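Fold it.
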Amino acid sequence: MSSPSVAPPSNRPPPLPAPRRSLGWRWVAVLVAVAGAHWVAAQWFERHRDTFKPVDTMQVPVQVALLKPERIEQQAAGTTPPRATPTAPPQQKRAAQAPHKRALTAVNPEPKRKKPPATPPAAQAAPTAEPAQPDASAAATEAASAVAASAAAGAASSVPSAAGGAGTASGTNNGNGNAAHAAPGVKFSVPPSGDLEYDTFYNGVRNQPGTIHWESDGHTYRLVVSVPLPFVGTYSYESHGHVDAFGLAPDQYIEKRGRRGEDVTVFNRETKQIAFTRTPATLALQDGAQDRFSMIMQLASLVRGAPDAYRSGVTREFYVTDNDSGEIWPIETIGDETVRTQQGFVDARHFMRLPRHEGDRRRIDVWLAPSLGWLPVRFVQTEPNGTQVELLWHGQTGTSDSGSANANPQRPNPADATDMQASPPPAAAPAEQPGVDYNRP
């Protein structure tokens, strides 16, 4: 009986698993694709950033003038009220007294009515001749007083020359004192109040819109700047104070960067000291001292008061405090330029902070627009590592009537409360000077 045949065992080795070459190539392709996407994104960011980046190769104009902090004009408005007020009431009183006397002397028509019509001319001549006598006596009295006054003047002229010289010297001193008291300073006009919205860019990439809230009644002011930054949070800067003889005078400056706590700078006018919460150090409070953002409004107020004084090459120095220190900022006028915004092209004047010391590569550029009441239309801060933060004017977020009386460019002294409240036509001021026009398409 035959049995089933059994195949002899094979001497061949078992087949090896196929290599995973296809999986490796897939990972390589993914890495190449990711690297290519990053390269394309970097190129796009670089091109987009260059469109908003200030021209680094521009030539700074030669400095033609260096302006220091100085007093603002305050006496021009104070000397105007007494020009017409004292003279008008006496004229009205004299005009009222004259007809009163005439009425008393001429009201005797009773004999005229009783007499026949043929005799009125003679009757009229008689009463008119009678009051002429008092007038003649009054004239004689005035002449006598004039003679007495001339005699007194002659007697005074006979006083020794030393007394006359003393009187002349005293009069000269008084005149000089009045002239010094009325000496004008630099023109100064606080911009009108308003809430402005800005497109914000971080290294050329658009972020959430930022805002600048500016409020001033000519005596006090409040400035709040809010700039949102990606992955960091909102940077907010607040400055509030008053207006003194040197312009804006900050009382407190509050800086908050993202999630960090607030850093406060206090300007103590009584002790003439600047104190910080970030450091125990203090600084001497100088005249015209500003914080980082009140300096922009101080510059805008000076330029708004005298636009022609800030031509290309004019540099003005400001003493500016940060959250832990203070130093001199030289701000130079670059010139008039055109800024492109979503609302169209806006004419503006370009200012740039010059290097504060050797090796200073942090740069600040600001463009002030006359059509916005000389408020900023563009602001760019460039860090030493090349990082840029930009604010570009987008439009208005609200209106404020508190600064309407302050928009008159012919009143360069907003610190004078009496003069500001006495200005009769505050609404007609923007017609003479281009003011804040945020409602244009």
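Residues 65-77+185-431 form one domain.
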